């Protein structure tokens, strides 16, 4: 099967699965947790491929210290560190779902919880570093310098992971609670941006962004944004003249135009960020779970970046949306 057809078929299956999963609160949180943890697993493999070749001596030092700790204290510190992102993102998403029906402004709850997750990760990594540095008396030792570099490197990667997966999935949880139908619009726009960038880049791509992104072109990025805007306008036409079942007609022409432009730009930035991480790790795809796309992280990289814009657009710049929704109901 042609790669384009595989991508389109997989996208339709994903949208159908998401549409069914969003019908009920319980199924939505289960679906979100599954997708999130699969994406985190692939992100962890990418992060490991970045750190291990860069600082191999620290990896060996870590293993020896962790094995010693496990024998003496009976605690598998390596296991806790390895799955820290899963733990932090999982409890963030579960907590925000719990507070959604109890608090009118869940963002007030989300940000302190997110900061706590970052602080816990920072403390955990620093504790791990000091445990490994116990036998290093000379702070001018090469091992100490490598240890500090590796720790700061891993903290940055874990903060990026918690922000991308934990915070952005919580944004979608809030969006689902307040404006559920708009999630489907956002996901459609993101997927169309990805397909537009692929089509325009493969057919008209002549100008590479730079030497690092050797298969990303300026024409592909601009084409993806154009395709997203065009699909936003088509959604408005369909909502007004064809059917109101999928796309809401109470959103204005300007709303769909702004959504297409904002989601298109952020989707491209999300794809470039994930491509940067994959190039640093030396891998082509984050996984092989989705035919034509690669892994879960390959598919949701743009979705994650678009989450803050989708939520804040309807929170800040569409003040009349709640009145329109009440009028429709």
UniProtKB/TrEMBL annotation:
UniProt entry tagged with the keyword Nucleotidyltransferase: yes
Signal peptide location: none
EC code(s) of this entry: 2.7.7.41
Subcellular location: Cell membrane
Pfam families according to UniProt: CTP_transf_1
GO cellular component: plasma membrane
Record's bilayer topology term: Multi-pass membrane protein
PROSITE patterns, sorted: CDS
Protein name listed in UniProt: Phosphatidate cytidylyltransferase
Taxonomic classification: Eukaryota, Sar, Alveolata, Ciliophora, Intramacronucleata
């Amino acid at each position: 099967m042609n790669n384009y057809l595989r991508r389109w078929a997989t996208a339709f299956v994903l949208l159908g699965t998401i549409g069914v999963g969003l019908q009920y609160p319980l199924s939505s949180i289960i679906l979100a947790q599954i997708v999130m943890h699969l994406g985190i697993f692939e992100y962890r493999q990418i992060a490991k491929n970045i750190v291990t070749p860069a600082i191999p001596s620290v990896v060996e030092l870590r293993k020896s210290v962790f094995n010693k700790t496990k024998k003496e204290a009976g605690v598998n510190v390596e296991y806790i560190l390895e799955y820290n992102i899963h733990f932090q993102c999982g409890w963030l998403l579960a907590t925000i779902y719990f507070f959604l029906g109890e608090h009118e402004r869940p963002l007030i709850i989300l940000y302190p919880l997110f900061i706590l997750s970052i602080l816990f990760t920072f403390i955990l990594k620093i504790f791990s570093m000091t445990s490994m540095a116990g036998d290093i008396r000379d702070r001018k030792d090469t091992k100490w310098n490598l240890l500090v570099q590796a720790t700061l490197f891993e903290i940055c990667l874990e903060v990026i992971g918690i922000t991308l997966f934990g915070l952005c999935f919580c944004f979608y949880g809030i969006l689902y609670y307040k404006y559920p139908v708009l999630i489907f619009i956002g996901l459609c726009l993101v997927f169309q941006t990805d397909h537009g960038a692929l089509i325009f880049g493969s057919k008209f791509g002549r100008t590479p962004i730079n030497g690092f992104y050797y298969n990303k072109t300026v024409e592909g990025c601009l084409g993806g944004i154009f395709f997203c805007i065009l699909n936003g306008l088509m959604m408005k036409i369909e909502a007004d003249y064809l059917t109101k079942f999928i796309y809401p007609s109470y959103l204005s022409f300007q709303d769909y135009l702004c959504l297409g432009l904002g989601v298109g730009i952020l989707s491209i930035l999300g794809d470039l960020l994930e491509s940067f991480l994959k190039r640093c790790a030396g891998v082509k795809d984050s996984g092989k779970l989705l035919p034509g796309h690669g892994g879960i992280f390959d598919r949701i990289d743009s979705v994650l970046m678009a989450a803050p814009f989708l939520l804040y657009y309807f929170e800040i710049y569409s003040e009349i949306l709640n009145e329109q929704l009440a009028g429709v109901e």
